[in-house]
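Pasting as-is:
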Amino acid sequence: MKRLHYPLMKKGHFARIALFMFSFFPCNAIYCSNELISNACTSEIPGWILHNNITTNPIQKDGYWLLEAGASSDCIFSPTIDAGNYTNLNLSFNIATYESGSVNPVRISYSTDGGATWASNTITSTPSAGPEFTPSGEINLGTLNTKLLVLRFSNNGTTGRDIKIKDISLTGTPIITTPIAKPATNITYQSFDANWTSTPEATGYILHIYKSTNIINENFTTIAASSSFVSSGSGASGSLSFGSSGWSATYGYSAGGVIRIGTGTTAGSLNSPPINISGKFMLTFKSCAWSNDSKNIDIFLNGTLLQTINLEDNIVSADLMKEYTIRGEGTGNDIITFSAKKNSNNRFFI
């Protein structure tokens, strides 16, 4: 989870819907390989097994390991390697020959069950005919899907030259699973908490923030230009001029730049134009109740209740109306409805 400070929208409008989202992907392992084993072969390393079939000539030499030819040659076994979450496994080492005779390749086998059985496919790498070390080049083992990988090195000849080997390295590219996005929390005008599931082997995440312009930014100054704002007594009953705005109301009246919904005996509602939201949104608006009327109104999305709001009343000026914020998720063809909760004495302003 990451807290992000980001200006979502400006304050100061009565009805406003803003849409934002974030996407991300894990970084590091997408482009980089991890080294699973690294052995200079300059000494006997715990976990490595040196199986010497010719006991008079040890495998451990000064700065390298020696694999002698034979009907059963010397063998080197790696420790058990966890390669279960890696792909593009690449093995490399430095190799040379020792003594004279025909040049033998090194024989490489691998086991995916900790050494109980060995894969039938073996790999060979033939050194140059000389004592100088040369790189084997990268030997790609692909993806083995095992946490019990063991490598075995041996001389592929029964007679001929011995093999010198050092600087054994196995690298792999971590397999990165896609993080699962979770809903943002603690959303304010300046920040929100982005949440997602963690991804094994990822050392960081690159987060992209997408912020739209306001989908609706309506202050009703033109629509409700006539009459004046009062929240008790008589007044706040001018005509509305919706024109081509797409807004509509039942029992809606002008109240000096804001809209009054309902009468003392009949409930009313205000409908937004159709909106293409297609995602999570945050709706903010300013509202208050007619003095001493019911304070509760319902906000619907496509006929489904989003939230019931408890309003303040006895407001003497439209500038003192409280701002409310609710959240939802649209489908792409959406209408927001502000509706009285009671059938009578549930007048409100917006």
